[in-house]
């Protein structure tokens, strides 16, 4: 019988050098749109979803490193009045949810030392 180590030593995963990336702490990339689900209870799979960094601008790299991101359909991302890039209320909704989820496993101080803000007690 030929030796076959295939099962014992599975193909080595190629290690890519890259900056810190973390999976979303809120949402798994499965074609659903986070806001369709949370705002409308709509779990449908979209042909296209885009990654959105919940805290943008100077906090974008922190969002990337900490997994503060979600996947959104185009109307909830960039296209139209409900899109988080046009709609402060929806943007803030995500910022609050993300802080809440983070604080299930961290203390507020940790959140604030990352973002410099407390979205749960603003406006
Ligand atoms: Zn959507
Ligand atoms: Zn975005």
What structural keywords apply?
123 residues; mainly alpha; two-stranded antiparallel sheet
Sheet having the most strands:
2 strands, antiparallel
Question: Bound compounds, please?
Answer: zinc ion
Strands, count? 2
The termini sit apart by 70 Å
Taken from the alpha-carbon principal axes, the silhouette is globular
Strand order of the largest sheet: 1-2
Percent range of helical residues: 25-40%
Counting helices, strands and paired strands, the structural category is mainly alpha
CA radius of gyration: 18 Å
Low-pLDDT regions? none
The total number of structural domains is: 1
Write the element-wise H/E pattern from the N-terminal end onward. HEHEHHH
Tally of alpha and pi helices: 5
Beta-strand percentage range: 5-15%
Q: Mean pLDDT, rounded to whole units?
A: 90
Précis, in short:
With 123 residues, the chain is mainly alpha-helical. The protein is 33% helix and 7% strand. It has one domain.
Describe the structure.
This protein has 123 residues and is mainly alpha-helical. It has one domain (34-121). Helices cover 33% and strands 7% of the residues. The protein contains five helices and two strands, in the order αβαβααα. A two-stranded antiparallel sheet has the order 1-2. The protein is globular. The chain binds zinc ion (ZN) (2 copies). The site of one zinc ion has 4 residues, from strand 1.
């Amino acid at each position: 019988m030929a030796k076959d180590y295939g099962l014992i030593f599975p193909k080595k995963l190629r290690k890519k050098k890259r900056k810190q990336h973390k999976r979303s702490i809120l949402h798994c990339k499965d074609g659903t749109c986070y806001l369709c689900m949370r705002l409308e209870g709509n779990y449908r799979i979209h042909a296209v979803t885009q990654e959105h960094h919940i805290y943008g601008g100077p906090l974008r790299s922190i969002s990337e490193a900490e997994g503060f991101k979600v996947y959104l359909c185009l109307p909830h991302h960039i296209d139209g009045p409900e899109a988080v890039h046009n709609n402060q209320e929806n943007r803030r909704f995500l910022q609050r949810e993300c802080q809440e989820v983070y604080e299930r496993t961290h203390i507020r101080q940790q959140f604030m030392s990352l973002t410099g803000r407390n979205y749960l007690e603003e406006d």
